[in-house]
Amino acid sequence: MAQIAKTTKSTQKKEAYEKKQEQGGKKVLEYIFGALIILAILFVVYSIFVVS
Asked: Using 50, 70 and 90 to split pLDDT, how confident is the model at 51?
């Protein structure tokens, strides 16, 4: 009986850790895509000034 409780507890910890990692990963992806969008906008503005 104690082994079942121990397994359940470790499974819950593992699921909580995976959920935390997923949320952190999503946040990192949002920062990366945000930075890429900003760099693209800056490149477009730079290109407009160089061409004109």
From this structure: confident
Q: For residue 40, what are its two tokens?
A: 């693209």
pTM, rounded to two decimals: 0.66
Is 1 strand, coil or helix? coil
Higher-pLDDT residue of 17, 38:
38
CA dihedral 36, 42, 43, 47 (to 10 degrees): 160
DSSP 9-52: HHHHHHHHHHHHHHHHHHHHHHHHHHHHHHHHHHHHHHHHHHH-
Query: How far is it, in rounded angstroms, from Cα 9 to Cα 7?
Result: 5
